Amino acid sequence: MQGEIRLSFAASHPAFADHFPGRPIVPGVLLLDAAIHAIVQARDGTAGGSAIGQVSSAKFLSPVTPDESLTLSWRDTGQGQIRFDIAGSDRQVATGVLGWAPP
């Protein structure tokens, strides 16, 4: 399984009020949550089927600003894990490996 989608976080998102006032950036947890939801939905066609059981690694490499256009791509490693990458127009912003929960 592999896939790719576009992501953007609206400047009106409540997380920006405290992260950080005057210079808002997307919290890493929002990037990770978007990746998990998109991958699970792509696998099952809904957000309620499979579950991610483990975040094996997650690295946040570059800040993301409100309304910035991002591309989330992922691929199955063949070992029960999914590798994901999130990129902006000119740089990689996050990468990681997720593991499926046992049935």
List the helices and strands and how they pair.
Blueprint: E1 2-7, H1 28-44, E2 52-60, E3 70-76, E4 81-87, E5 92-100
Antiparallel strand pairs: 1-3, 2-5, 3-4, 4-5
Give an overview in words.
With 103 residues, the protein is an alpha+beta fold. It has one domain: Thiol Ester Dehydrase, Chain A. The chain is built from one helix and five strands. The protein has a five-stranded antiparallel beta sheet, covered by helices on one side. Strand 4 (81-87) and strand 5 form a beta hairpin. The longest helix is centred in the middle third of the chain and has 17 residues, at 28-44. The model has no long low-confidence stretch (mean pLDDT 91). Residues 4-96 form the ApeI dehydratase-like domain. InterPro entries: ApeI-like, HotDog_dom_sf. This is ApeI dehydratase-like domain-containing protein. It comes from Polaromonas eurypsychrophila. One of its GO terms (molecular function) is lyase activity.
For the termini, the CA-CA separation is: 18 Å
CATH C-level name: Alpha Beta
CATH architecture, by name, is Roll
Number of discrete domains: 1
The radius of gyration over CA amounts to: 14 Å
Q: At the third CATH level, what is the topology name? A: Thiol Ester Dehydrase, Chain A
- Outline the biggest β-sheet: 5 strands, antiparallel
The helicity comes to: 10-25%
The number of helical segments is 1
Give the averaged pLDDT, no decimals.
91
| Lateral strand order in the biggest sheet | 1-3-4-5-2
Class of secondary structure makeup: alpha+beta
The share of residues in extended strands comes to: 35-45%
The shape is elongated
Give a count of the beta strands, DSSP E runs of length 2 or more.
5
Domain ApeI dehydratase-like: 4-96
GO molecular function, one term: lyase activity
Protein name: ApeI dehydratase-like domain-containing protein
Organism: Polaromonas eurypsychrophila
